User: Fold these one by one.
Assistant:
Number 1:
Amino acid sequence: MKQQQNTRKGCTGFRKMSRRDALQAGVFGAMGLSLGDMLRLEAAGSDAFTQASGTKKEAKALSVIQLHLPGGFQQQEAFDPKPEAPVEIRGSFGVTKTKTGDVLSDNFPETAKIADKVTILRSLVGRVPDHGLATYHLFTGYPKTAVIDYPQMASIVSHELGKRGELPPYVAIPNKHSFSGGTGFISSAFGPFELGSDPGARGYQVRDFSIPNNVTTDRFQRRLSAREIIEQRLREQQVDPNTLETMDDFYKQAQTLLTSSQAQAAFKLDEESEATFQLYGRDVVGLKGPDNRYHPKGLAERLIVARRLVESGVRFVTVNYGSWDCHVDVQKNTLDQMPALDHAIAGLVSDLDQRGMLDSTIFWVTSEFGRTPKVNRDGGRDHHARCYSNLIAGGGFTRGQFYGSSDATGAEPGRDALLLEDLLFTIYHQLGIDANKELLAFGTRPIEIIKDGKLVEGLLS
């Protein structure tokens, strides 16, 4: 078998991923939608109906912020260092002690200071070390198959819990991950609102977030009236009512985002203080870029917007940061990206705690898998799914815990192996969703939200 070429940018499968077009819970041509758009919605938006089964649970958390580190995050240089292992395993970094007496890599001094507020998961078990397949599994809880397309966790949360205010229940910053799947067999109405713009970049402006300059208020209202007339005629012609309801939801959501100053304010950074930006590490940089300059990473701004969104009622926010596919020179990859990550994690946890939001917000740091215990001949680490690390905080999860452990080299779980399905099941539980509940795919086929998952009580306070 031909081996994939190793480069600093990552393996071929990771470099070549392309963004899938997703239906936006936003504006289509300033409230104009073509028949083609409607037909695509009809084709893509098959509804799922809830079975009678499923136990009503008390929600411990209202929202989730998922910070995803695509490419496969190196746990040895982060949450699970191996200081007693040989150098080819432990790598080139030392450790820093936490308030709990445990250690993190010395790349995480700020996170070490707030370790008493989070849980480090050191024994997570995945299924396959492939970027696309592992990312899909992480976001849906199911292996990818050619038979059924499963919905993302955030879409399930949107479907089960609905909106909590004016904003969409599911927002992706800056966009959803291209390997993460979509809404699967549930309606496209439960897909993400994608910003289409990076809050950490110059000229940040949410895509399709304002009425075009050439459209006056009167003209905008006339378009709304025209849409209502067309929709009424479609109903009279007995067009699928589920499709029309989905379209109506898109329109109402778009109109809210265009006309509500409160909704628009949630996406902005103008009201944030300089102290908050510093808390999240806005000015923290890594290595010099190709232009021989240091560049802020933008993660601070992304997480501040995420916090503002859950504060305003958004149920689930996904944030992507970095490129961690370090087959070559893991040390360089670490030094470039981890300083900003360390500050941002500590900043968000501290900010949520200070605002009284940590108990009601789950903050979850994920990657599709980890890296191999042994550094390869190119100074990098390769894909490894059998044992890796996550971080989780808030929402009723324990504080100050290092859950599970890997063995002496980090190759396999040494204690309390944590299946990904069980972790997702437990997060659903904290949100008040019974993950044993069945949804009907294609109108007749019952499918559990998480198949054979179980509650991990050792993670909960």
Number 2:
Amino acid sequence: MRQTNQMERSTVKYTLYTWGANSFGQLGLRNAEDQVKPQGVEYEQETETLRAVTGGGGHSALITESGKLLVCGQNHKGQLGLGHVAEVMTFQLCQLPGSRRVQQVSCGWDFTIILTVDDGEVLACGSNSFGQLGVSPQTPHSTQPLLISSFKEPVVSVTAGLRHALAVTDSGGVYQWGTGLLSQARRALNPHPVPAHLSSKEPCLVPGLDQAYAKSVSAGFVHCACLTVSGEVFLWGSNKHGQLCRNETFLPLPTVLELSLLNGEKVSAIHSGWTHLIAQTESKSVFTWGRASYGQLGRQVTVNDGTASTVPSEVRTLHGATRIACGSEHNLAIVGNKVFSWGWNEHGMCGDGSLCDVLQPQPIPDLQNAKGLLIGCGAGHSLALCLRNRKDAGS
């Protein structure tokens, strides 16, 4: 009898789920049909668990525990780094030069930035129309990951915005490249010149952070965010939707976010969608601000006709969140091991079975019995690695 009970004892199963927009096969499901509920996905290297999941405009990327990079989805500019420009409907292994292992990957609209484990090198693939690959401007795009050779020290954090990118080096400096902010900067700063970091097609040191030691970076449609070791946040770029918490329409240089707006608390993590931001503080509180048109702030907004909030406000449902991920206008969070979603839902990326925007964070029904481990977002799709309990008997 005791042996039977042991055989029936629940065992653990890791499952990768994807849902939302799938026009280019970015969900890895062997088809191009949108999914309004989480679907289990098979991927190469399934004998390994995953360390990170994320997405871009129409592609997705996974990092395994051993540092392998798996990719699928839109590939018209070579953003999957597979050496060709055909769409890929299942997750495939992206081989990096020299068999480098991957520490972090960030996907922009049509390009990918890759940070390696061993030496803190940065590689990039995909479109270079805006200089977002950080290599020679004469390279229109690359189907192979190219080494960004201009860094003189190891890099510890990278991020891809829509058409620009940022990196933090080992000494705490922040570098920016890609001209995705240039047109807005020219209009806002005219007749004054545009600072070099907003117009450079190769990594350029961002001024104004000399007294700060950067820890990580995040980027949106046309704005940038930097988190320092001391728990401060610096913001710059477009302020069209109040995402910089200032009165100016555009900030060319990093400007500190007043911690009084976050109840005086230091920030432990900063996340960015296209036009909104989310901060986690040392007390595990979660604040949101910026554009609110699709419910992406996860709370009721009463200012600016309900379309934006220029003042951070706490979302109490998310208190204690262990992970948060932002898509273009939707979000995921893990709170108490449950996967929550909210925001834009036109393609079903909130995973609740509907196409209606979700105005407040809600647990995803089909993942109620799963323990959320990792989450990631693309522009209009979602990914989650979960643990599910199952009985061996009868399986």
Number 3:
Amino acid sequence: MEVTNRVEPGTNVVIVKNLYVSIDPYQVNRMKSFSSSQSATKNAVGVNPGEGIDAHGVGKVVASGNTEFEKGDLIVGLISWGDYTVVKPGVLLRKFDPLGLPLSYQVGILGFSGLTAYAGLFDICKPKKGEKVFVSAASGSVGNLVGQYAKLFGCYVVGSAGNNEKVALLKEKLGFDDAFNYKEETDLKATLKRYFPDGIDIYFDNVGAEMLDAAVANMKAFGRVAACGVISEYTDVRKRAAPNMLDVVYKRIKIEGFLVVDYMNVYQDFLRTTCDHLRNGEIQALEDISNGVESIPSAFAGLFCGDNIGKKIVQIAQE
């Protein structure tokens, strides 16, 4: 992309050199010829062949016709999967202070992944100290943070992941009480009964399908489920959750879907709390960073093969 270093004052156009872009599973639903998610929210509108793909990311202003931004400003917001972004009026964009932390954190732990984990756990599930929490896709961008927040809060936490390396990481680095490789289990309901003999209070669901069924079967009365993602359905529509609705009704289980954009009101609390945890060494930022715009396709495809550990990010350029 050829980029000019000048834009006309008053146009409100900002030209951004992209530094880091977020790679997220939900984007696959935007690329489908049809997905019900596309009409549910403007944040998941479809992308047609030949169109640019926007994503949360970090960049540096190289030219600005908007008085709110100057050349050299670091920004975070909706940028594109590419080298540069021409940001037009009305697009989510803001300047930020790195706070002495890596710029990549703005895309992951201090960005939408972190806020999703924080809001989903504390606003949707409302944990109490000592409660039993189960997290699926627990080594992913959101799941690893849910587990860490829950442990810091005083909960008992078990996570599931797709290989033994990830299981070891959850227990040895991130402080989960226990974890298991779901690919080695033939009966998920029995597995969860083994790890939660007295039942699950909170299930943070990132996968849907049979894992949700198994979790509901093992929930305590008044259990809460945060329905954050359904990655098992994104690439296989035959996988649909069918939880026992008698359990849902008679155990009075709450299952609530949510989108991070609905919880921007807690962003400042989330940011302050998470920065304190990072500086005190109480929480780990788990990042999986690829380099160069040419690595975006393989980075994206790898999400659906379980290649990533933590937040998948592509570094487009140096600051």
